Amino acid sequence: MRAVWIIASFLTVVIAIASCQTAEDIEFKRYYTAGLVEYQNHCQNCHGDKGQGLAALIPPLTDTAYISRNKNMLACLLSKGIKGKITVAGKEFDSEMPPAELAPMEIAQVLTYVGNSFGNKVGLISNDDVTRDLKNCR
Amino acid sequence: MRKPIILFAVGLTMFMAACGDNKSNRLPILGHRDAETKTVDGKEVTDTVYQTIPPFKFVNQYGDSITDNNLKGKIYVADFFFTSCPSICPTMHRNMLNVYNAYKADDNFKILSYSIDPKYDSVPVLKKYADKLGISGQSWWLLQSGKDETYKLATSYLTSVAEDASVPGGHVHDGWFILIDKQKHIRGTYDGTVTTEVTKLIADIKTLQAEPEQRVAQ
């Protein structure tokens, strides 16, 4: 009888830990799937379905070093737009990206998508992260 | 007892072959068509007259004047865009690059991208866009002219083929790629924002080139 209790409580703990991870997973997935739709509606025209960009007109989103280095800047880049010279994937771009008309939550979702697609792997970028980052825009 | 089955199979095969043959590798001719009746040798004959692209005069990214005469003996694909377009144009030209790369070595094939914002898209602006797009040589011309002329010409390429080619507000905004043959007939319209349609266009150009009327230089 005791053995059954021990096994049962052990199982409970395992399940608790597992479901804890799943909750995080679910949150990530929720951001990511919403972000995919945002991406298709607001970014894909320019950056392409594979984040490939367009020749020397529009930079790709596949420069994983650029994305992870600028992880905390991306929200500002989206909300203010980008103008002038930037170097991405070893190439110089001198075009203009118009400001994205997105709420902080939507920015978080689309960045979670971009940040974990096309070879990038920066993990969840949450609504709180974006709200904080937006306060530090230059 | 087996005979009916064999007969059926043979019949079906013939039917399918005939069907395939009917479609023989020809593209349809699109646009308005008029019946023109004339008298030949005392007999009335009716000819179908298909819509053609009217004469035009534009300037390309090199500052050269380009008219319909420059397209004599050429098969070409046309689209309408503008360099500062934030919506569908990047997708269209990402796809058009596939067409360009497939046929850029072919002297008798061209791509014409007409700017619908000629005021902003001056010759230097078009040249810079071409350079950044990575295109060179004479296979892909970016063209500009007066706005009215451009809009009128757009109608010849579009209204007959795209039902919603009415132009709301400032700019023509549909992403059609229009395939034109050596007789200036419209032979296909493809949604330039959809990769599979553009893949079909690339295949259709080959089909069109194989038609007897297209093999002779005009």
UniProtKB/TrEMBL annotation, chain A:
Residues 30-118 form the Cytochrome c domain. SUPFAM superfamilies: Cytochrome c (SSF46626). It holds the Pfam family Cytochrom_C. Residues 1-23 form the signal peptide. Keywords: Heme, Iron, Metal-binding, Signal. The keyword Metal-binding applies. GO terms for molecular function: electron transfer activity; heme binding; metal ion binding. InterPro entries: Cyt_c-like_dom (IPR009056), Cyt_c-like_dom_sf (IPR036909), Cytochrome_c-type_DH (IPR051459). It comes from the Bacteria. This is C-type cytochrome. It comes from Mucilaginibacter myungsuensis. The lineage of its organism: Bacteria, Pseudomonadati, Bacteroidota, Sphingobacteriia, Sphingobacteriales.
TrEMBL record, chain B:
InterPro entries: SCO1/SenC, Thioredoxin-like_sf, Thioredoxin_domain. The keyword Metal-binding applies. The keyword Metal-binding applies. It comes from the Bacteria. GO terms for molecular function: metal ion binding. Cu cation binds at residues 85, 89, 173. Transmembrane segments: none annotated. CDD domains: SCO. Residues 47-210 form the Thioredoxin domain. Pfam families: SCO1-SenC. Disulfide bonds join 85-89. Keywords: Copper, Disulfide bond, Metal-binding. PANTHER family: ELECTRON TRANSPORT PROTIN SCO1/SENC FAMILY MEMBER (PTHR12151), LINALOOL DEHYDRATASE_ISOMERASE DOMAIN-CONTAINING PROTEIN (PTHR12151:SF25). Belongs to the SCO1/2 family. This is SCO family protein. It comes from Mucilaginibacter myungsuensis.
